[in-house]
Amino acid sequence: MPHVISLSSLIPAGLTVEQFEAVDDVLIVTASGRNRQAACPSCSSPARRVHSRYIRGVTDLPAAGRMVRLRLITRRFRCDVGTCRRKIFAERFGEAVPERARRTGRMECIVHHLGLALGGRPAASFAERLMMPVSNDTLLRVVRRRARPRNDVLTTIGIDDFAFRRNHRYGSIVCDLQRRQIVKLLPDREIATVAAWLADHPDIRIVSRDRGGGYGEAAALALPEVVQVADRWHLMENASAAFLDAVRKSMKLIRVTLGATAIDPKLLTSAERIQYEGYLRREETNGVVEGLAADGIPIKEIVRRTGRSRKLVRQIVRGERTDVFRTRQGSLDPHLPYLDAQWEAGCRNGAELWRRLRGQGFLGSLRVVGEWATRRRRSEHISGSELRRTPSARTIARLMTLKRDHLTKSETVVVAAIEAGVPALAEARELTDRFHAMIRGRAVGDLVSWMHDAEESLLASFARGILKDASLSAVQGAIIETWSNGQTEGQVNKLKLVKRQMYGRAKLDLLEARLLGAA
């Protein structure tokens, strides 16, 4: 049995249809209120006497592929209460048609959600396709107007920084880790700003943060009793970075151990020769800076005398610029076992090796395979007195931290030689493994003994950083507590997406309104 749908059921509740007409692609509906009386906005007394009427234009949701415009016949009533300051007032229609609004309440809600999801121009373009034309400025105004701050009681928060413009200006994001929601955006990451906000929320008991000192100092200043929790992922990443720095500082000893204290440029490919020439130029600068540092001259004075940057001088003094070949993992690395097998089987032609690799799923160019074949061919002609190439610091760090059953025979020989020739580096690798196992196993009792063992090792700087300020208690909290800052990092990624949608319009209030409204 077919159902009959009346036009009255399609317009907002509380209105009665008086007339309707279709003009082009617009459906114009004349409607009026159903109630015979209205409450005075000032004294809330009911009023029945009608003073006059006027037409109010309101846009509603589209129907049947046409835009809908409401001609709302609005009555003015007289207030008969003698003490009321308001004598004449216009009737209100509640949430169906908000006061002074040019859109119905349900259309305003759709416009708000479009602004939250898409921002300005994309939402305006999509709204036009939905037969609800609205400008991008209006969309952003609606998002700002309907923004509501979070008033929930906070007990467990995560805080991290984000960039308005990288290396220039940063803000701070605060998340409720229990409700998994963003609660506040701060205009900067200064200690005073963060401490002032934390002081306004005395119910906070746990603060999860990264290992940067600013947020830790702010939490200790505003809420001395709060439990600070360092981010576990950053702790493990910092330990790995500290081991990589230890490898870089030991590169000269590693080259001596592997018998590679000199390099024959004739045995290098063109790309390797460019890197080697850059290394020789760096060595000249390194020698000057190291000589000044050996005489006890401070870094600031070395910067003034040499004209080099402070960062560069610090790296040289710390022994972090000793790599000859600073290579990254290439596209050919996963296919090296197959290439070695083909080479041993007698295939020595670079083009033929490349064609066979293409059949194995290799997407790289012929030049990459040709350089590998050239390097392999030249290495077979090196005599015992000639020296071979040392892997980069990053490659050595990766080989030393991998499990032995994941290494090839040649890689195992290299790692064994390094461990025998540079025992301090083997000790640092063992300390790094212990630290990772301690974080994964939640073994907080092992932290003190680990730090004691690391004091005289190549990881001493990392261990001192943990002791600094409130970092030790934060590291203990990271091991004990279930909370971590990974959730906050995810919210930062969401913030970046929203910020890039709005380009230059992403001011702090609008950015916060979109993020909090979407949650």
TrEMBL record:
Tagged with keyword Electron transport: no
UniProt keyword list: Plasmid
Signal peptide bounds: none
Domain Transposase IS204/IS1001/IS1096/IS1165 zinc-finger: 37-80
Domain Transposase IS204/IS1001/IS1096/IS1165 DDE, first and last residues per copy: 157-250, 375-514
Domain of life, source organism: Bacteria
Record flagged with keyword Cell cycle: no
NCBIfam families, alphabetized: transpos_ISL3
PANTHER family linked: TRANSPOSASE FOR INSERTION SEQUENCE ELEMENT IS1557
Name listed for the protein in its UniProt record: ISL3 family transposase
Native organism: Jiella pelagia
